[in-house]
């Protein structure tokens, strides 16, 4: 799953934050599926909500939108603005 991360792998703190949120019940089963998909499909690359919706294929746009917003708030996803377009990438949580 992590092999598309260009050899860098997710930062340990990202996995710690994800693990704590998962254990605390803050992350749903569908969000866990989406997170694993993002790690394996996009690695360190950027993606849009529409692209994730199309590629994942098993979630409504509202679910995708809620996922990226929540994970951006948790620091697990970075937000990149290009005019009126937004793309996301794996975040770098800072301690």
Unreliable sequence segments? 1-8
Kindly report how far apart the N and C termini lie. 25 Å
The total domain count is 1
* Secondary structural class: alpha+beta
Global morphology: globular
Measured by DSSP, the beta-strand proportion falls in 5-15%
Helix content percent band: 40-55%
- Tally of helical runs: 4
Q: Class in CATH?
A: Mainly Alpha
CATH superfamily: Winged helix-like DNA-binding domain superfamily/Winged helix DNA-binding domain
CATH architecture: Orthogonal Bundle
CATH topology: Arc Repressor Mutant, subunit A
The Rg value, from CA coordinates, equals 12 Å
Describe the structure.
This protein is of the alpha+beta class. It has a single domain, classed as Winged helix-like DNA-binding domain superfamily/Winged helix DNA-binding domain (Arc Repressor Mutant, subunit A), CATH 1.10.10. Helix content is 51%, strand content 13%. The chain is built from 4 helices and 2 strands. Strands 1-2 form a two-stranded antiparallel ribbon. A hairpin with a 2-residue loop joins β1 (77-82) and β2 (85-90). α3 packs across α4 (61-74). It is globular. Mean pLDDT is 87; it is low at 1-8.
Which labels suit this protein?
two-stranded antiparallel ribbon; 95 residues; 2 strands; Arc Repressor Mutant, subunit A
Secondary structure: elements and pairs:
Blueprint: H1 12-23, H2 29-42, H3 49-56, H4 61-74, E1 77-82, E2 85-90
Antiparallel strand pairs: 1-2
């Amino acid at each position: 799953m992590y092999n598309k991360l260009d050899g860098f792998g997710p930062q340990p703190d990202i996995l710690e934050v994800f693990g704590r949120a998962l254990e605390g019940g803050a992350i749903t089963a569908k969000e866990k599926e989406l997170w694993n998909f993002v790690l394996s499909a996009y690695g360190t690359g950027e993606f849009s909500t529409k692209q994730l919706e199309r590629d994942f294929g098993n979630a409504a746009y509202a679910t995708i939108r809620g996922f990226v917003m929540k994970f951006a708030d948790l620091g697990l996803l970075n937000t990149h603005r290009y005019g009126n377009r937004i793309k996301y990438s794996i975040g770098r949580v800072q301690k």
